[in-house]
Amino acid sequence: MSEPRVRRAEIAVEQAHVDRVYTRLAELRAQAEAMRAKGYELGQGAQREAIFEQASMLFERDMMVYHANQTLQTLDAEYEGLVFGRLDHRDRERIYVGRLGIRDTEFDNLVTDWRAPAAAAFYQATAEEPMDVVRRRVIRCSGQNVLDVDDDVLIADAVPEDMQIVGEGALMAALGRARGEKMRDIVATIQKEQDEVIRAPWRGVTEITGGPGTGKTAVALHRAAYLLYRYRRQLGGAGVLVIGPSGVFTSYISRVLPSMGETNVELRALGEVLDGLEATRQDTSALAAVKGSLRMRKVLLRALRDTPPEAPDELRIVYRGEVLKLAGRELEKVRRKAHTQGAPPNRSRVRVAELLLAALADKAEEYAKADGKEIDRAELITDLGERIDFHRFLVVWWPVLYPAQVLKWLGEEKRLAAAAKGVLSRAEISLLAADFADRARGWSVADVALLDELRVLVGPEPKRRRRQTVVEVEPDRTGGGTPHRPEHYDEYSHVVVDESQDLSPMQWRMVGRRGKYASWTVVGDPVQSSWPDPGEAAQARDQAFGTKTARRRYTLRTNYRNSAEIFELAAKVVTGHAQAEELPAAVRTTGIAPEVRPVDAAALATATQAAVKELLGAVEGTVGVITAMDRVGEVSGWLSGQADERLKVVGSLDSKGLEYDAVVLVEPMELVTESSTGRRVLYVALTRATQHLIVLASDPDWLPAS
Length: 706
Ligand SMILES: Nc1ncnc2c1ncn2[C@@H]1O[C@H](COP(=O)(O)OP(=O)(O)OP(=O)(O)O)[C@@H](O)[C@H]1O
Known about the structure:
The chain has 706 residues and is an alpha/beta fold. The chain folds into five domains: 3-176, no CATH class; 178-277 and 442-462 and 489-558, Rossmann fold, CATH 3.40.50; 285-304 and 402-441; 315-397, no CATH class; 564-697, P-loop containing nucleotide triphosphate hydrolases (Rossmann fold, 3-Layer(aba) Sandwich), CATH 3.40.50.300. It is 43% helix and 17% strand. Helix 11 (295-305) crosses helix 19 (445-458), helix 13 (349-370) crosses helix 14 (377-385) and helix 19 (445-458) crosses helix 20. The two termini are 52 Å apart. 42% of the residues are buried. The structure holds adenosine-5'-triphosphate. Adenosine-5'-triphosphate is lined by residues 171, 174-175, 184, 186, 189-191, 194, 210, 212-218, 525, 528, 560-561, 657, 659, 687. Adenosine-5'-triphosphate (ATP) is lined by residues 171, 174-175, 184, 186, 189-191, 194, 210, 212-218, 525, 528, 560-561, 657, 659, 687. ATP binds at residues 210-217. Residues 189-563 form the UvrD-like helicase ATP-binding domain. Residues 467-488 are annotated as: Disordered.
């Protein structure tokens, strides 16, 4: 038979199996629906029964409805591309691999879940170690229709006469397909080195490094799905947290886990880790470097121990006709004493009242002694402690502290200078004070870690005020919080941190608090780091991991995103900033070289418009325009006439983790100069494109002479 006829015949073979699978799926769906309906019926019946039976029937109803809903949700999530692989073993046994395990009515496997041990050979078998697999087949479907098949022969001399082999390279075909707005799952084409990481043991800390496009994000997400499948009992209840660099990024990856039927995972951007906040604004790199530094802990601690701006500077209270007065210095002595006892101020209010009453009693004793009298100390303390004017004083002198309010105080340069004495430089103090004073812009991503640190330092708000959140806004977690978890939940069983090379030490502390009891998967690429002090960040990261001793490291070495032509250009900008072994190998050549276009600065707008038009015509998928952070608004304005939902304008830092079919990079030199780690940020920007890259540059210095 000719190759197209063989292919058609093989597609028909697989279509027959896929049809059986979907017929069975429809039966399972119908069963789950019937169970749900029965559950509701039971609930109706409960209303007519005695109270005890009612309770147990309602419980049973809830369980039935819950399980039925879970099943329906999973069946629906896995519908698309349900079957994607087939293994033919040497002993002629064959298994189909898919997103979900399905058995027929005889309990024979129609599909094996990709996470099950029996499916591991689909990813791990190679020609060198075939694991008894003669042929591995990737089946590509759209809905219930088989579109194509692609085979790898792993034991050439064991291929039986009647086995047909079709196509080559399911991976290359997958990589060549157009990119959409959301990341795709890679479950059908996971590579061996990736599979090892996905299936690594769950305990302890798993670190994954690798250059751009090596699949770190894809692997981390598949690992989360795998761990929840294999260790649901240990990990499922407490939940898994995935941290990404930005909201744009978390939205980009948001489809991957639900498409694998996983809903028990919470995705949060770094600006959303603290409940009640969704910060997206990025600080300048100089400001972010100060805010992220561990030195800020000391500054914050001193700031909250300072006298609140509204605090009265003396306490006067009349007791039995005599005015008792504590002057400013005496009050400050009490404040210092209360703070040195170490409890968070919001927890010390009773202790502070006791200290103030003791100071008043000392004062009264002093006066009485001068008059040759005696006082009943205990009685005085009880009497004054019940007085309304004493409590009025207390609430303004030792108010409940809110993190947002303490940070705002630091907008006053004098106050910040006092808190930062010997810790920050004068220039850093001025920079920070000016930023905190300008509150109209809302919190930045780096501020969130400071607010979280303060949340812990000030302690919980007293119960009756509990409804107010630490940031004085009502929580609005449309971005994906889980309502059933308590506020500031810190009991996740597993935490995944993506783009981890960019977490500041303060951000590591914030994330570490959420993972006190967790095992970790940490994904990053030091060469893409935009954080200026990796040593300090590493120390904070180790602290976040706590005492977990099991540590395993993996390196991914193949760049699946960029064409070899694009990556060759990108690698040039980090020459001297990275070791050769830190750069991955891009294996896909497209024959399309990236274009560097010298442009006059005055003609940048028209050049950008022209490049965008060209690329929208050249690719089916997305086109990204990447600029320096403070140019995003301007460049978006240039392109307002070219509305196309495939087109996105994004700032350098926000392009982390994303990818487009084609990229226009505007003024690369501005990315280099916008921060002290500019070359690395430029490297990130240059590695976002899968097929086409156009660089528009008025200044040629961005590209080192080779
Ligand atoms: N095994 C695979 N099969 C198909 N596609 C893959 C595979 N591995 C990675 N990819 C694709 O390669 C691209 C890059 O993957 P991913 O974004 O996870 O890389 P990354 O290492 O996180 O990159 P970066 O560090 O640049 O953000 C994605 O489109 C992903 O779907």
